[in-house]
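Weekly sync, protein design subgroup
Attendees: M.S., D.O., the rotation student, P.L. (late)

Item 1: inverse folding check
M.S. brought a backbone from last month's batch and wanted to see whether the design step gives back something sensible before we order anything. D.O. pointed out we never logged the input encoding, so this time it goes straight into the notes. Structure tokens as presented (147 positions):
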């Protein structure tokens, strides 16, 4: 539709958008190739990330992310599922389907299907403990809402 639009102002805006979109895509492909080729080791990735945030306002949130990752359970089966879930969430944030940065002021809602993750958790002791915590939290919430 926009390719055949006869209004000059709209056509200019559309052409400008297409140029920016193509440049963004080329930059993304270039960055992906660079990352894929040179940064396949965790130590290298960490060094690059740290160098990018060192002495910036992003350093605190980066450290917080790492600290949260340290809190993931030591159970190797559950840990693997946690990291898969976290990977999916990060992918959804960094590579949104809309190709537009998220609204950083608002609430971000994930579209991940976590059924497989929950099924894995339910099979072990960690899952039973998690279910118990969810039940207690749900009960406390319901009691608080009732007051």
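Designed sequence read out in the meeting:
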């Amino acid at each position: 539709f926009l390719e055949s639009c006869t209004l000059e102002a709209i056509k200019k805006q559309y052409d400008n958008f297409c140029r920016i979109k193509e440049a963004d895509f080329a930059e993304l492909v270039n960055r992906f190739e660079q990352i894929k080729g040179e940064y396949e080791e965790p130590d290298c990735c960490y060094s690059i990330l740290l160098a990018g945030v060192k002495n910036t306002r992003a350093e605190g949130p980066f450290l917080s992310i790492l600290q949260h990752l340290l809190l993931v359970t030591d159970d190797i089966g559950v840990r693997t599922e946690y990291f898969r879930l976290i990977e999916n969430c990060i992918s959804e944030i960094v590579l949104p389907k809309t190709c537009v940065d998220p609204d950083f002021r608002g609430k971000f809602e994930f579209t991940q299907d976590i059924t497989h993750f929950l099924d894995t958790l339910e099979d072990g002791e960690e899952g039973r403990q998690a279910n118990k915590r969810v039940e207690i939290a749900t009960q406390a919430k319901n009691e608080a809402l009732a007051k």
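Discussion: The helical segments are 8-38, 42-53, 59-70, 76-94, 115-122, 125-146. The chain has a mean pLDDT of 81.
Action: P.L. to compare against the previous round before Friday.
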